[in-house]
Amino acid sequence: MPLLPPGFVLGAATAAAQIEGATAEDGRGPSIWETYARRHPPADGSDGSVAADHYHRVDEDVALLARLGVSSYRFSISWSRVLPTGRGPVNAAGLDFYDRLVDRLLESGLAPMATLYHHDLPQALEDDGGWINPATAVAFGDYAGIVGERLADRVSSWVPISEPNVAAFLGYGNGTQAPGHRLYFDALHVVHQLLLGHGRAVGALREAGAREVGCANNHAPIWPFSEDPADVGAGKLFDSLWNGMFLEPMLLGRYPVDVAPLMDDLVAPGDLALIRQPLDFYGVNYYSPIRIAAAPDDAPVPFEVFEMLGYPRTDRGWTVVPDALREWLITFRARFRAALPPIVVTEAGASYAVGPDERGVVDDQARIDYLDAHLRAVVEACERGVDVRGFYVWSLLDGFEWTEGLAQRYGLVHVDHETLVRTPKRSFAWYAEVIAAQTRSVG
Ligand SMILES: O=C(O)[C@H](O)[C@@H](O)[C@H](O)[C@H](O)CO
User: Fold this and answer.
1) Which of 43, 214, 221, 366 is most exposed by smallest CB count within 10 Å?
2) Which phi and psi angles does 442 have, rounded to 5°?
């Protein structure tokens, strides 16, 4: 059982479109994920219309968080639940839902961390061009101001956009996530717009009196397929795009040198200053390393993701390499030390499909092993001087896992998607004991 530095935050995370359900209730407007799931239904035919039905079971889920003993809970706010068309009149019932959630969390001694955008763009904005249309970044800033005005007095920390690289490169680059555009390198325009959205939201939250504002960027160590210079080069380019494209503008106010020329025509005077707002924490979402090879010359992009052999895998097929997290954190600090605020692992977790056995026990030992090993990797990085202040398990509940539907289960709590009954898994009890031991150790 890893013992963490004093004051280390142990939390859990979720996202609105993945757990709330109630997608057409109380004035919520549609988001791009309802549209995408209709056009590209996951293999199990599910969509987020019910998910874990958190919208109707929020009290039960907050009670689970309190029982788990986490000190903080990261959730996301559905833009189209608060602003059904993404701008214009506020949907009072929507904002009231998050107001009540924040109050319940505080009553249970939990520090709320709120994400403003977790992949669920209001469909009305997408109909107007989505993140390709510069008006969307402006609307995002306004939305941040509205939510900040209501909640900044009680929310402890904020994340404007979760995994902007996923939103840009999978949503607009290769179209494997909502909204599903295949723009390839033309998606770089969307990268810049998401960053402008981030900058505007940070500014609006600061104005509203936000206590702490950070980010939650998805990072992965990039391993070239071979030592062939073509693979090494492809790996470097992918690293600049996947890891550097949001990190460097946010922390350094410039794009990675090897791709910056591709951005010159997109950057207007003042844009990079707007993007590079000081952050109170740097959020890292970590899952596994990515192996990259050079792609054939006729491929739309010069790199391709390659399978990684010889490592344990989750039920989603993602490789389990805790050492890579430690290495990535140490390298990250060495490279960006001067500009780096404290780090928080805003997401780490794994998908294992095991369900309740005949006794009703969900024996997810593999998840316990995954979390234990990754927490130890964080502790080792801290021992090497990396300033990591927190770790949020993805996820509290089994939810709607985007293109994978309900089949991939990341939760510490099992959700029966027929009855919506919640069953804490063995990993829930294990994590609760890690937290209790941590509390005991600081006395
Ligand atoms: O933006 C994010 O934080 C992620 O995409 C999550 O929503 C995923 O569910 C998780 O990464 C597991 O795949």
Assistant:
1) 43
2) -95, -5
CB 79 within 8 A of CB 117: yes
Strand, helix or coil for residue 267? coil
Please write the tens of the pLDDT for every residue from 351-393. Answer: 999 999 999 999 999 999 999 999 999 999 999 999 999 999 9
Q: How far apart are CA 35 and CA 369, in angstroms?
A: 37
Ligand 1 centre from 12 Cα, in Å?
13
Domains by residue range for the chain, with CATH: 9-442 (3.20.20.80)
> 139: which residues sit within 8 A by CB, 6+ positions away?
86, 87, 125
Q: How far apart are CA 32 and CA 180, in angstroms?
A: 9
Cβ-count burial 316-334 (b if 16+ within 10 Å, e if not): bebbbbbebbbbbbeebbe
- Check if 227 is active-site: no
Q: Quote the CA–CA distance of 140 and 138 in Å, as a whole number.
A: 5
CA distance 307 to 319: 9
101: which 2 tokens?
A: 């959630």
DSSP bridge pairs for 222: 290
Cα–Cα distance for residue pair 349/47, rounded to 1 Å: 22
Count of CB atoms situated within 10 Å of the CB of 420: 16
For 293, other C-beta atoms within 10 Å of its C-beta total 17
Q: What does residue 174 show for φ and ψ, rounded to 5 degrees?
A: -110, 0
212 has catalytic annotation: no
At 386-427, the pLDDT tens digits run 999 999 999 999 999 999 999 999 999 999 999 999 999 999
- The structure tokens 């740097």 sit at 282
Give the E-state strand segments of 208-352 in sequence order: 212-213, 217-219, 222-224, 282-286, 290-294, 303-306, 343-348
CA 350 – CA 395 distance, rounded (Å) = 9
CA distance 181 to 149: 34
**Interatomic CA distance for residues 341 and 345, integer angstroms:** 13
- Confirm whether the ipTM is greater than 0.90: yes
Residues near ligand 1 (Cβ within 6 A): 15, 18, 118-119, 162-163, 166, 285, 347, 394, 401, 410
Given the residues 34, 126, 347, 380, select the one marked as catalytic. Answer: 347
**Residue 437 phi, psi dihedral angles, 5° rounding:** -65, -40
